């Protein structure tokens, strides 16, 4: 039976398993995890499993380490963090003490072959945000394998920083947008956060709600009221992107995909970030249309085209 592949820090902990349980996991090739205790001068990660020493040679610390495509920094930053692996053997160290030999690279190769390589653009999968850059967020899509979620794929509403939408360690759902030139996944989340109509249905003319300023233009201020929904308020001074405000909903116009807002409170006392609300949580998307049927402006994603044109 094929094992379930998950993001790192989601596997059974090996630290407190009995010797018999560790032997069984080694025989079956089960992916386990434990906290890396050190990256030593021999360029190997050290662990302790049930009171027994365990080591992971550098070449086994990540798929690609053996060929030089993985840098030391990517490995030594595992110290103090849960790290997944398969147990490849039980040896003895230079003092004759038992020592488990571990491989994260093999866990990643299994994850790719049996899970990730079976997926295609439009498939939805769970991810964990591992770090954030100005251009996007890197996510663990399984066994520590990284994929990029670009900033422009985080929502229909424009944001200044990926940190406006996600945080490190956050577990999210993404869809596969395509693969890059190296075959790595490029992710998207905006197609899971609802169409214009689905988001607008949550609001009513006459309500006052919390909003986040996303851009200040000469002709008005765009204020986000949900991750995939923004409206336009009249220009006013003293506003900056990222600022939380309260807004009165003056009108909702599906035929133009516009929401007219009036800013009521220009400076709420604390920052605000909307929680992600998923309208689609599993399965596969071939095509997604954000626009309302009556609006001539079309915002859509064709995942079938991405599947035919990788990279």
From TrEMBL:
It holds the Pfam family S1. It comes from the Bacteria. Residues 122-190, 206-232 form the S1 motif domain. GO terms for biological process: translation. InterPro entries: NA-bd_OB-fold (IPR012340), Ribos_protein_bS1-like (IPR050437), S1_domain (IPR003029). Keywords: Ribonucleoprotein, Ribosomal protein. One of its GO terms (cellular component) is ribonucleoprotein complex. Belongs to the bacterial ribosomal protein bS1 family. This is 30S ribosomal protein S1. GO terms for molecular function: mRNA binding; structural constituent of ribosome.
